[in-house]
Amino acid sequence: MNMLQLFEKKKQGLALSQAEIDYFVEGYTAGSIPDYQASSLLMAIRLLGMTDDETFYLTKAMIESGDVIDLSSIEGFKIDKHSTGGVGDKVTLIVTPIIASLGIPVAKFSGKGLGITGGTIDKLESIEGLKTELSSQEFIDNVNQHKIAVAGQTGNLVPADKKLYALRDVTGTVDSIPLIAASIMSKKIASGADGIVLDVKCGSGAFMKTEQDAQRLADTMTAIGEKLGRKVVAHISDMDNPLGKMIGNKLEVVEAYALLNGRMEETHEDLLDECVVIASFMYQVAAGVDEAEATPAVKRVLADGSAVAKFEEFIVAQGGVIADIVQKDTAYKAAVTASTAGTVETINALLIGEASVSLGAGRVTKESALDYDAGIQLIAKKGDPIASGDTIAYLYSNHPIDEETVNKVQKAYTIA
């Protein structure tokens, strides 16, 4: 067996066997298959697709390329969630303490952001002292004691995905449904949780631009999870508009904390609604209850303070300083004003995401240094009436803010 045979088979639109996919994943992870051959196969997959069986074989081979975390010493049904990425998506910071306060163990491994997609680990690391690099025992002890732990992925968790994703990122093969599904589900399965809720984003600020593609991705990931013995639920949510009012690492932590504290004037109903839906799905999967029981339970722990207390407990348990969860002054601040009067019809999430990266809140490359305090505060949201000259957003950064970034945020607003 060699890579030329795999190329020829895929070029003819034929499905690769499990043995052939195992050969590719094992060889590329070990370094015996060079980047130029791997990228050729990835491009063939991007153009010609994969069958459901091929996608499953690829996911399984990627899982088996490294460690699989054993969470059996954690009592109860372990639940995890994953978002395909969006702008202002701080849902994990809110739903994990909600579920933990309901007595369900939440064992979550998260990643760092790249480009316009913010990473949960970056957001948590914006909190003074907070530790996201936990040993396996620390992670398990935290979940058993506090019902919650969120940590960065371990060094040998799905090494095949680390190599393949880095190659996809520079070869124009990121936007392939089979490759996205295998990447996400290999990490989720290897992370050891019993159940997974998938938040599949759809719109201008997401990988999946259409609802049809989002549904295909959701169905593919759900099928993979079920074949591998996990309970999986997928939910499709809007990412044409940014979620909530804050975009940026520390800003999003501040907004999440405000929502958990019930300070709705500092956040927005769209974020609350999304968090209630995702938390309800997580509770349904873990506790085996229906929506009629799950949704009121989620709202109850938000209202009675249990969820915010669990959030504070979680932050302190991982070394974080609660008093540091405040918006910090930045060296530069710029106001964005409306050029016309009317009602905000939409806010282009892609443009807002790009602007936040320009301010220093996101990475251009994996080596980029983050400005944790940089970001965007949306003053006007979809549906809000505004007058010409009103401030619709504020930009924050510790380096000078150029006119192009200000104009990009203004352009993101469609005012009808």
UniProtKB/TrEMBL annotation:
Residues 343-416 form the Pyrimidine nucleoside phosphorylase C-terminal domain. GO terms for biological process: pyrimidine nucleobase metabolic process; pyrimidine nucleoside metabolic process. One of its GO terms (cellular component) is cytosol. It is an enzyme of class 2 (transferase). SMART domains: PYNP_C. Its EC number is 2.4.2.2. InterPro entries: Glycosyl_Trfase_fam3, Glycosyl_Trfase_fam3_N_dom, Glycosyl_Trfase_fam3_N_dom_sf, Nuc_phospho_transferase, PYNP-like_C_sf, PYNP_C, Pyrmidine_PPas_bac/euk, Thymidine/pyrmidine_PPase. One of its GO terms (molecular function) is deoxyuridine phosphorylase activity. Its cofactor is K(+). It catalyses: uridine + phosphate = alpha-D-ribose 1-phosphate + uracil; 2'-deoxyuridine + phosphate = 2-deoxy-alpha-D-ribose 1-phosphate + uracil; thymidine + phosphate = 2-deoxy-alpha-D-ribose 1-phosphate + thymine. Keywords: Glycosyltransferase, Transferase. Belongs to the thymidine/pyrimidine-nucleoside phosphorylase family. Catalyzes phosphorolysis of the pyrimidine nucleosides uridine, thymidine and 2'-deoxyuridine with the formation of the corresponding pyrimidine base and ribose-1-phosphate. Homodimer. This is Pyrimidine-nucleoside phosphorylase. The gene is deoA.
